[in-house]
Amino acid sequence: MIETETSIDPIWPGDTDWEALAARAISAALAVSAQGSLASAPFTVSVSVHFGTDDEVQALNRDYRHKDKPTNVLSFPMIDPDDFTALANTGADDFGGEVLLGDIMLAYQTCAREAEEKGIALGAHATHLALHGMLHLLGHDHIDEADAEIMEALEVKALANLGIDNPY
């Protein structure tokens, strides 16, 4: 079972159900990944999503990535990608019934600005960024071109499954 724990800074507009959006994005990313079987694991797979501010994300970006600027999304994986095979073959008791995959942080001002620049709804852009962050938690990256193509293809597929157009 996948569980999405969500926290939302009041700066995010109240006209969207951000908790439901996060849960859909996390589930969609998991469904298209090689780790999709975690959705039916005998333990709870937990992901934390925080809809925060540029200031929060900038501080984390500075402290953990040594880049003193805000960015749209940050991911903090708690599981090494090499451990996913072993994780898929374990029981609920091995982890006390829960595995924390990691944390995802979105920065409101940057997300809102990017959505406006792209001419898309903030909710569609936030969905894309949340599932992008989830793919990072699942071991994907976009450092080199081949990995970026794989990750983008997964994003496009997951977004299509949610009825959201290709952002690329």
Task: Give a structural overview.
With 168 residues, the protein is α/β, with parallel strands linked by helices. It has a single domain (2-161), classed as Collagenase (Catalytic Domain) (3-Layer(aba) Sandwich). Helix content is 45%, strand content 18%. It has 6 helices and 4 strands; from the N terminus they run E-H-E-H-E-H-E-H-H-H. It has helices at residues 18-32, 54-65, 84-88, 108-118, 122-137, 145-161, and strands spanning 2-8, 44-52, 73-77, 98-107. Helix 1 crosses helix 5, helix 4 crosses helix 5 (122-137) and helix 5 (122-137) packs across helix 6. The longest helix has 17 residues, at 145-161. The protein is globular. Belongs to the endoribonuclease YbeY family.
Report mean pLDDT, rounded to a whole number.
93
Q: In the CATH classification, which architecture applies? A: 3-Layer(aba) Sandwich
- Let me know the CATH homologous superfamily: Metalloproteases ("zincins"), catalytic domain
Q: How do the helices and strands follow one another from N- to C-terminus?
A: EHEHEHEHHH
- Kindly report the spatial arrangement of strands forming the biggest sheet: 1-2-4-3
Short summary of the structure?
The chain is of the alpha/beta class and 168 residues long. 45% of the residues lie in helices and 18% in strands.
Structural descriptors:
168 residues, alpha/beta, Collagenase (Catalytic Domain), 4-stranded mixed beta sheet, 6 helices, 4 strands, 18% strand, metalloendopeptidase activity, zinc ion binding
How are the secondary structure elements laid out?
Layout: E1 2-8, H1 18-32, E2 44-52, H2 54-65, E3 73-77, H3 84-88, E4 98-107, H4 108-118, H5 122-137, H6 145-161
Parallel strand pairs: 1-2, 2-4
Antiparallel strand pairs: 3-4
GO molecular function, one term: zinc ion binding
Pfam family, one: YbeY
Family: Belongs to the endoribonuclease YbeY family.
